[in-house]
Amino acid sequence: MEPTLKFFSGFAPNDLWFMGEAALRTLWISVLSISLGTVLGTLFGWMLYEGRRAATLTLAPVLDVFRSVPLIIQLVLFYNFAPIVGLNLDPFASGTVILTVYTAALVANVARGGIEAVGAPMRRAARSLGLSYWQDLRHVVLPIGGRAVFPSWVGVALGVMKDSALVSVLGYVELLKASQILITRTQEPFLILALAGAFYFALSYPVSRYATHLENRWAQ
Amino acid sequence: MFDYNFHWRPVMKSLPDLLEAASLTLQVAVLAMVLGIVFGLCLALARLHLRGTVYWFATAWVELARNTPALFQLFFFGFGLGAFGLHLSPYLIVLAGLTFNCAGYLAENFRGGFKAVPETQIRASRSLGMTPWQAYSRVVIPQVFRIVYHPITNQMVWAVLMSSLGMLVGFRELSGETQFFASRTFRIFEYFAVTAVIYYAIVKVILLSSRLMAARLFRY
Fold first, then answer.
1. Which chain B residue has the Cα nearest residue A163?
2. B15: which of A52, B9, B30, B192 is 20 to 30 A away, CA to CA?
3. Vertex B39, ends B59 and B132: CA angle to 5°?
4. CA pair distance B174, A69, nearest whole angstrom
5. Across chain A, what does the average pLDDT equal?
6. Rounded distance, CA A22 to CA B214, Å?
7. pLDDT at position B2
8. pLDDT tens across B135-156, in order?
9. Helix H segments across chain A?
């Protein structure tokens, strides 16, 4: 059906470029917050494991909040809270901060599980062989525990990559926001959504398959 | 430091409305979970026992649900179906999106649960004279239920958290209602802070009641 009045322009090759750029922004904010969040989360996980009473009373409930409140609410809250304390953050910075803390909250549990997965006898053996506490962490706990929880970490990372779509509520033009803008202009929702979905799928599916593959191989 | 006056009164005045919206959130999440469990079971069984088109349909559903952002799925049910002239109400968009997502994630949990029960048990119960239905309902299902109980609880929490995306498709559940009030009064931080507390409380109640139920269900 050819519209007689053209309010909307069709999907042009230029728009693919626009979407590609937005996809890169999705990738960039995900990579940044996943890496920062993993480092922070590993630290939290170690604190939860070692700090016992003190950490479980203070850190654990705080991390729990980030897991029990919808990410979208966290984003809006932080974005509107930052100016109150005199911080002027753009959507990208606010999004990165919240995604990082959110990742850290999820990774903390994974990391603690990883440390717990390494049995106490093994660690005692390592210490008896003359390894220092940090050497034990670096050369015994990291390879063994890391391997045990690697698949769950991949799950968390992919989850955060998908959840990065929510940063669009702050006005950060990532892939899904870009699609929405294009849909409004071109009125071709199906094609554009399919493209966006295909991008996420192409990113997430191989990685999750690879993680399952590794899990199965290591389980043997 | 604080150059900002907090105004909690408008929030308190609309608290009854917010709580009503929270019940809508809970309603759509529970409904999506019930449908998700039904569809998830079908998908899991289809992937385990069937071949051909049905198998590929179930696999495509599961992989799409797990490898694309939930927001993308909502947009798809919102705008995507609009391309075919099918316009759902915001309530149906959220319900369909959540059901699609939950079914995909639950299907994988169910599949793992069914796989964990050795097939020899079915053969054993069949040779004891049970009908296939009896074997399933008295031997297999109780064991599977025990395995998938915690994943179901987690998914329920996710369903509540995910329903907050309704805000972006114009559904006036807890988040949507909050945004409506917030943009009317410009008390964005205050409104979203209260909403965060409500979500936190809902999640805690779900987890607590799940734990109490588990204590009763799995006593032996």
1. B69
2. B30
3. 95
4. 12
5. 88
6. 45
7. 62
8. 888 888 889 988 899 999 999 9
9. 13-50, 52-68, 71-81, 91-117, 120-128, 133-136, 142-163, 175-186, 189-219
Contact A193 B72 (CB under 8 A): yes
- Alpha-carbon dihedral angle through residues B198, B202, B204, B207, given to the nearest 10 degrees: -170
Question: HSE-up of B15 (CA within 13 Å, CB side)?
Answer: 10
Cβ pairs A/B, distance under 8 A: 107
Q: Is there a contact between A85 and B71 if contact means CB atoms under 8 Å apart?
A: no
For residue A12, the distance in angstroms to the closest alpha carbon of chain B comes to 18
Within-domain flag for A5: no
The range of the structural domain enclosing residue A172 comes to 19-219
High-pLDDT (> 90) share of chain A, %: 51
Residue A12 lies in a domain: no
Residue A2 lies in a domain: no
The pLDDT of residue A7: 59
Q: How confident is the model at residue A1 (pLDDT cuts 50, 70, 90)?
A: low
Domains along the sequence of chain B with CATH: 35-217 (1.10.3720.10)
Task: Flag residues of chain B having pLDDT under 50.
Answer: none
Helix (H) or strand (E) holding B99: helix B90-116
Phi, psi of A208 (to 5 degrees): -70, -35
pLDDT at A200 over 70: yes
Q: The domain that contains A46 carries what CATH number?
A: 1.10.3720.10
A193 reaches B (C-beta below 8 A): yes
Q: B7, B25, B71: which to substitute to probe chain A, counting the most A Cβ within 10 Å?
A: B71
The secondary structure of B154-201, three-state, reads: HHHHHHHHHHHHHHHHCCCCHHHHHHHHHHHHCCHHHHHHHHHHHHHH
- Is there a domain that residue A7 lies in? no
Say whether pLDDT at A105 is over 60: yes
Q: Does B71 touch chain A (CB under 8 A)?
A: yes
pLDDT tens track for B48-80: 888 889 999 999 999 999 999 999 999 999 888
Note the ipTM here: 0.88
Cβ <8 Å between A70 and B175: yes
Contact A166 B71 (CB under 8 A): yes
Report CB contact under 8 Å: B80, A188: no
**Tally of domains in chain A:** 1
Cα separation, A23 vs B75, whole angstroms: 17
